[in-house]
Amino acid sequence: MAEITTPLMEKIRSPAVQSDALQVFKSALAATVTWWISVNLLNSQLPFLAPWVALMTMQFTVYHTFISGIQTAIASVIGVGLSFVIGTYLDVSVWTFGLAMVIGLIGARVPKLRAEGIGIATTSIFLLASGFDDQQPLLYDRILEILLGVAVAIAINLIIFPPLRDQEANMVVGNLDRRMGEVLQKMADELAEKWNIDNADEWLEEINSINNDLEKAWHSVRFARESRRVNPRKIRIQEGRPQPTETSYESNLTSIDEGIAHLRHLARTLRDTPIIDSDWDPVFQQQWVSLMHDAGALLADPNQEIDPIRDRLSKLSSEMSEDQQLTSKKWPIYGSLLTSLFHLSALADDALTTRKTEDKEHNS
After folding, report:
1. What percentage of the chain has pLDDT greater than the value 70?
2. How far apart are CA 143 and CA 139, in angstroms?
3. How many angstroms separate the first and last alpha carbons of the chain?
4. What does the alpha-carbon distance between residue 119 and residue 1 come to, in Å, rounded to a whole number?
């Protein structure tokens, strides 16, 4: 039971799940508040219009909520105007209803309204299908309800824990580093023993999985960037305590993308080189495998006390270049392994440098 409960609790505590749950609450609150105002203060004959607009407006970031609110308001007001023009001058019939849908759906393809442009057609449906004769004198009331839905959605998203997704982006980027580090450690552990060609296919499968998750990480980073815009919570956090140097998530992901390529090349070299199985140089094997394990450990957990990798790797390269016993057949392979690990160690050393910088800023 505990084995099931622990992963479930970890998932519930994750920033993504908590943000999603908060968004559900805020959307429900916005719809409920606008419905109550429509019924009790505006005495609306269409009390569902303002809640519907509020739900259309509410987005995961404050900035996107503003943009969505503007687009939804414009689209819905156009839909109201379209309904009143058709209802007033053409009367409501199956043909004029269809005409309103065609015009509304064409309007939804206007570039600046594309995201929320469907509101033109849906607003027309609400008004034409709910008894136009009763709605005709209430044009300004319908527009007021639309603006009410937009305003309440923006206000609630702005006031109640406006989403700031830096923590989620940091976790996603860190998870990619961790998984790459785990693959490196697994490779090192298995290379320290008897070489098994089947293991290389497992490494490549995991590397491809990491590469597939890289696009999700880019989405999370772009989302985090957007969540900072027009966000009072960021201002409060900055005023409350000194801020560390801003992390360049884009730069980190670019480095990770390159690291995945080098990790894949490393795994393929080990898989496709026959002499590695039977003719490892013992000195090179011991030191190179140890460095690969340390690089993986730093990527998986930058808080470990491990000396920087690149300097040690350069020392190994110099020592091996002076070894007269290495054949010309081995050097291209060893050089490829050293080069791939050098690029991967750059990621590990950068993670170590970032951790030391954060510790220094935290203690200052």
Report:
1. 74
2. 7
3. 44
4. 47
